[in-house]
Amino acid sequence: MSTFSAPPQSDREDKVQIKGLIFSEKYGDKSFNLDVEERAQAMEAIFNQEDFDKNGQPESVTNIIDRFKDIESFFDSEITDETLPYFIDWLIDNVHLVEITAYSDNDAYMIFETMNDRGLSLTPTDMLKGYLLANIANEEKRDGAADIWKHWSRELNEISSEETSDFLKAWLRSQYAQSIRKRKKNAKPRDFERIGTEFHRWIRENKDIRQENPNIYVGIGLEKSNDFYDFIKRDYTFYSQQYMTLRNASSNYTKGFEDVYHVAQLGFTLQYPVLLAPLNPDDDKKIIYKKIQAVSTFIEILLARRLWNWHSITYSTMQYTMFIIMREIRRKSIQELIPLLLHRIEDQEDFDENERFALHKKNRYMIHRLLVRMTDALELGSGQPSHYLEYINKKGDPKNPYEVEHIWANHPERHEDEFSHPVDYGDYRNRIGGLLLLPKKFNASYSDRPYKKKYDHYYGQNLLAQSLNAKCYEHNPGFLSFVRQSELPFKPHKHFKKKDLDERQALYIALVKYTWDPDRLKKFLE
Q1: How far apart are CA 89 and CA 73, in angstroms?
Q2: For position 214, what pLDDT does the model report?
Q3: What is the CA radius of gyration of the chain?
Q4: How distant, in Å, are the alpha carbons of 87, 317, 370, 406, 506 from that of 364?
């Protein structure tokens, strides 16, 4: 039993006797009624209104100090010395503490999980943690698993307060979801949806399910104590590490994982469970990276094709397709994975199936991102450094961001020889072959001018804009070598009439087919 020295009784405490609620005295020694050895010094410091150094203290001790400071900060200023005794009486009469005795650590975790599944405000993450730990019988392993969970939760929550929950949804969907709500009215939620809203209950209900086909891993297989321990120590650790890698690559342009970033720029959050799906805790680092690179490349090609062919890539539109794919590629080897991804791409419309792809009111952002990738692919292929981050306005001059610019100014009267109606001119003008990616200040200075007034100035811009000018084809070995090897139909345009825009449209279709070439996936088999 820990002991401490209490301060002399004040007049106020004589009027309102609360010391018996806080500590007891036996054989001349005082001890707190909530007597936990490691917390005694912190409790005494609070009781005596003294500062306490939290450095090196257990989490439970730091929590006591921090929560007491929270109470102090929220304490109503109207409760003064005169009103304090009345407040104490009210508190004692109206607040009740209930003691629940757990006769083992296992009982304690079960009580925790059960009570907090009855409408209290703990999250599904908290309840899943409690459930998993409660089923680990060995105390040392349970403490180790708790430390592992705490470590990775802390790492994940540095990204955002909801990141642990988001990770659990992505992981569990990627590895275990076998069904999804049917796409019809009044259909019931299935694995995919339930993991998104109540994964703690879903795990409990499906903990011992194993797949009948031994060649396809899907079962969670939580039956024995060691299963629960391994689920945290091996699987939770492995997939949280990979998820952290993906989240970092989605917000930081990372060499080797560029396509993860490219997909994130399209706002496609469904990529995470799909990227986790083929990963296996037994994979070595090289195989893990190859799988991530292959699947992220596949996703970007898939999204680019859909955007080009006027298809939505919103969450609600894509979740069914992504679920089918993640289930199909789950824990596949790299040799199995690539043919599956290539087959999926073959099922999608190709770029040349929409020869009139154009800008409209609702796709300017996506057009911007497509032009960024096309321009960057051209420059990288020509041996130039990447300016991708500048083009998406993450680096460079924030006051001079890159924008989508029309080659033709909004003056249909200048083209009456080829277009009898302004609407026809506008439709043609918006085709992607008539668009460039240029700095805002350039657009402000030159966008309204005729093509011949902008022609020379294009040469000072990015390589896709330069390619309009004949100078780009002189003394430019990297670009010329790229044109020869790729066989893309680049050519200068001294004038820019309807025929020139048609040729430029055909060039852009060839360039997007080069940028998002499915054959890129085959290199991961090497």
Answers
A1: 21
A2: 46
A3: 32
A4: 62, 20, 10, 12, 20
Q: Is the dihedral of CA 32, 34, 36, 40 positive or negative?
A: negative
CA distance 29 to 146: 36
Which amino acid is located at 114 in the chain? T
Amino acid at 451: Y
Q: Which are the contacts of 150, defined by CB distance < 8 A and separation ≥ 6?
A: none
Query: What b/e string do you get for 222-246 counting C-beta neighbours within 10 Å, with b at 16 or more?
Result: beeeebbbbbbbeebbbbbebbbbb
Instruction: Write the DSSP string, 486-523.
Output: H-------SS--HHHHHHHHHHHHHHHHHHT-GGGGGG
**Tens digit of pLDDT for each residue in 408-418?**
999 999 999 99
At 104, the pLDDT band (50, 70, 90 cuts) reads: low
**Which whole-number Å values give the CA distances from 430 to 59, 402, 406, in the listed order?**
60, 18, 7
Task: Show the tokens assigned to 216.
Answer: 């396809």
Q: Give the global pTM.
A: 0.80
β-strands 29-32, 23-26 pairing: antiparallel
Six token digits for residue 133: 């730990």
Q: What is the mean pLDDT of the chain?
A: 90
> Are the beta carbons of 209 and 177 closer than 8 angstroms?
no
